Amino acid sequence: MRSLTLAFALQSCLAFSSLFGKEDASPGETLWEFQADGRVMATAAMDAARVYFGTASESASDLTSTLHCLDREAGTEVWSQTFPNWLQAGPAITNTRVFIGCDDTKLYCLDKETGEDLWQVDTAGRIDSTPCVDTPGNCYFGSRDRFFYAVDPKGKVLWSRFLTQGVASSPLLNEREGRLYVADLSNTIYAFTLSGEEVWRYKPRQGGIGGVRLRIYSSPTIDDEGLLYVGSGDMNLYAVDRRTGQLFWREPTGGVLDSSPVISADKHLYVANREGVLFKYLIDPLAEDREVWRNESIGQVFYGSPTIDSENNIYICGAPAIVDPETEVPQTQLSYIDRFRGEILWSARYPGYTDATPTLDAEGNVYLGTAGGSFFKVNGAGNALAETSWATFRGQPSGAGRYEETYRDWLIRFSIPPEFATTDRDSDKDGFLDFEEFVLGAHPRDPTSRPSRMVGTISPHDDDTQFAFELLKGLRAPYRVETSADLRAWLSAEISRDRFEFEDGEDRWRVQVPLTPPASSGELYYRVRWDQEVSLEP
Q1: I need a surface site. Which of 238, 303, 521, 523 has the fewest CB within 10 A?
Q2: Is the full-model pTM beyond 0.85?
Q3: CA–CA separation, 122 and 111 (whole Å)
Q4: CB of 424 closer than 8 Å to CB of 479
């Protein structure tokens, strides 16, 4: 963390008020706008007087980003704190503290009143999901290093649990039942006790669908009937018995579900897919036809979730389609939707995309930020947040993977000169080529940041399944998929590419590899291995 800035109303010149007072403002009209120092993509946290949100730097050479604390009424900055890397997820707040994860692999705890750095916990992977905090002040969070952590109020690690893959989904805390629920990027959902004991795990298996993304960015949601709900990259919404981890029902949505579901007071569930379709479902366990309606006019939804007000109407942010990239600029559309018919009652647009969930205050005002660098307070419908167990998302999933960058731009972002943009360079000498780390999302100059391809596992109890990964077109090296029965002494057996299935995406190939569980009692390990020569065809 670099520096702390305290700001006062007369010093903050970055908040611009609407020309009219709230009593004259129409729905969707901006009440004030705060210009931040980078993209504002994640959901804000809010208390009675202030609102807190982080930024992601737009600079390729300086990744410094900022956590802002603003006065809710005036839109002026109270304090700000800088960080050495992107803040891709929303903060979690208590009465006295602010918790936020950073792409520099650390979880930070700050004094809520002043923004002072109280302590940090370092991990071996970026933290781009929102933590949760229990009543005693213990904080629970996941990292891309594949661990799920619990730390006490002083920042001491109480326990950590190794998961199958890294975590981009924000955990759910059910303190009344003493349970934690979290999902990882292997498409697996876990339940833990507050002391870290694993209660169950459930892994949805949809291996027969071509081109699916078998991972979970969506964060779990619970109802009052004992069920847990989560969306998946396999395009399904899952309802699981939260006591046993058994599947109760599955609902196909026709699009990737990185958004998190929310539940209204009249016992309906709302969730949006990446195709820009908002669904209303019955959560009655005995319902035969769950879908009530769908709205296909909200714009593409990435990681943001709906928010439900006290009238059970719905707010959601989407990205309208761009027809002419030469003349049109990216925008966020905030829609307010009628709960009965699913029609948009009103909408407003703001410059830049967002991955945020709209935040709602007691007066019915809406708060959101965009990649345009602005954070807005917007006049809403005048209704407070619904009084239900899960009326809005408690945190914001990662925005990682949202922005496609070329290999050369990606290297420049990490201060690697363009002339070194080759496919055989290993900047951090960790045994993984820069190019390999680019394709699989690791850091080229951090030896602790390793590609997510490291090792997957299949046990004899697993059904036949498929391993899925993606290849960017024109920016990849020859590869092979290997399996081994020995993890330490890797005795590889290559899977024939004749068995691979390829789906031609817009900018990448999606590859499905069939895997057969081992016949013996041991486990079978698998990984992708990359060579150094460039190849443009699968």
Answers
A1: 521
A2: no
A3: 18
A4: no
pLDDT digits (tens, 9 = 90+) for 266-314: 889 999 998 999 999 998 877 888 999 999 999 999 889 999 999 999 9
Q: What pLDDT, in 10s, does the model give residues 222-262?
A: 888 889 999 998 889 999 999 999 999 999 999 888 999 99
Structure tokens at 164: 């199958």
CB of 314 closer than 8 Å to CB of 392:
no
Give the pair of three-digit tokens for residue 257: 């579900």
Which DSSP string corresponds to 231-300? E-TTSEEEEEETTT--EEEEEE-SS---SPPEE-TTSEEEEE-TTS-EEEEE--TT-S--EEEEE--S-B
Do residues 147 and 163 lie in contact, with contact meaning Cβ atoms separated by under 8 Å?
A: yes
Beta-strand pair 493-494/268-272: unpaired
Q: Cα–Cα distance between 278 and 528 in angstroms, integer?
A: 36
- The C-alpha atoms of residue 103 and residue 363 are separated, in whole angstroms, by 34
Measure the CA angle with vertex 166, ends 68 and 118; round to 5°. 35
| Burial state string for 133-143 with b = 16 or more CB within 10 A and e = fewer than 16 | bbeebbbbbbb
Which of 362, 352, 364, 259 is closest to 55 using CA atoms?
Answer: 352
